[in-house]
Amino acid sequence: MIARLAVLVGAGWLALAGVATAATAPVSKIDIEGVISPVTVRLVGTAIDRAQAEKAQALIIQLDTPGGLERSMRAIVQRMMNADIPVVVYVAPTGARAASAGVFITMAAHVAAMAPATNIGAAHPVAVGGTMDKEMSKKAENDAAAFVRTIATERGRNADWAEKAVRESVSITEREAVRLHVVDLVAESMPDLLAKLDGREIKTVKGSVRLATREAAVVPIAIGFRDRFLNVISDPNVAYVLMMLGMLGLFFELSNPGAILPGVVGGISLILAFFAFQSLPINWAGLLLILFAIILFVAEIKVVSHGILAVGGMVSMALGSIMLFDAPELGFRISWALIAFMVAATALLFLGVVAAGMRALGRRPLTGAAGLIGQTAVAREALAPAGHVTLQGEIWQAVADGEMVTAGTPVRVVGIDGLTLKVVKAGSAGGES
């Protein structure tokens, strides 16, 4: 009897210790906002690893996204489905949405929650970096529908609605999502979410876990400088500017070997742009049009086309810029104002080079025999008609054309015959002979 009582007391103490440990375990949190991209995959993966390493009860992903790349979405879903700790997706703050790829990510969570005045849905696959024919579009739709259906079934959510979100692009509010069993709950704030998560039993790949989150501390997972930097350059507008700077920098370095700075800046910019292109849906036709525009601008410098090549370059660059990231449904689009500025600035730059070249061609030569014509010299002795003159600190043989010139008289060079200058008195009429 005493032994049994000791066992019961020991078990009670262990249970109390387990509850106390769970109550004091923190909850990790990361904010994911914007387009789903390879950078997002890295952020979510890092957050799950850190939450597990820090012995957090759960990881909360606060989500607000218009969608993103299908490959990145699948990587995130796979990471969440195989997480050792519970992953909670919270569509917040008020006014946020989980659209397109966000639907898959939300439904893959162990617990899905939404803030008031948020929405979820519109998950029909769209083509990026080009167009799909009817057959390919149907294949992509069936594949996405099967994927979201199996996710919903695994998490015990409404698989029929999930399929409709893919096939018919339906979208619902947070209240409708709870009523239709698309998400688990609506939480007005982070403390409200923690209170509603408290006591839930979550099934993970390592077994069942009971959450004790009511008094748990929320530990934000800060995004490091590297990830912030990668996220910035992966923005279509930034990648576009980097590409243009890279092309122009390399062009001016090749045109003026030894300038160094344009080549260094251009090389770094172009490498960063190509890195960003790996995570963006590039339309190669748009990129080729931009390259063709640069070729036309260069040709305008070399060939007299009366501006036709320059105009063609502007049109080609504008069309290429518009087509480069032609996926507005996913947020991959370059600002119209940025396109107009870059096209105009590039065109003005090249036209300025052309204008400078034309002015140089029309300018009087400053060196060589032709550069001496029109220069003023001083007679060192009487020119009757031959003698010597001083020109730019040098002594030249000279022959006076016309009347005799006395020593010390200014004369103007009107011609040159070998090493002999032909001169007239400064101010008198005369031409090249």
| Coarse shape | elongated
Helix/strand-derived category reads alpha/beta
Distance between the termini: 136 Å
Helix fraction bin: 40-55%
What is the strand tally?
Answer: 16
Name the CATH homologous superfamily of the largest domain: 2-enoyl-CoA Hydratase, Chain A, domain 1
Percent of sequence in beta strands: 15-25%
The CATH topology of the largest domain is what? 2-enoyl-CoA Hydratase, Chain A, domain 1
Task: Provide the CATH top-level class of the largest domain.
Answer: Alpha Beta
Helix count from the secondary structure assignment: 15
Sheet with most strands: 6 strands, parallel
Mean pLDDT: 82
Q: Any idea what the radius of gyration is?
A: 38 Å
CATH-derived architecture of the largest domain: Alpha-Beta Complex
Q: Please mark out the parts with pLDDT under 50 across 5 or more consecutive residues, or reply none.
A: 5-23
How many separate structural domains? 3
What oligomeric assembly is this protein in?
single chain
Strand order of the largest sheet: 8-5-3-2-1-11
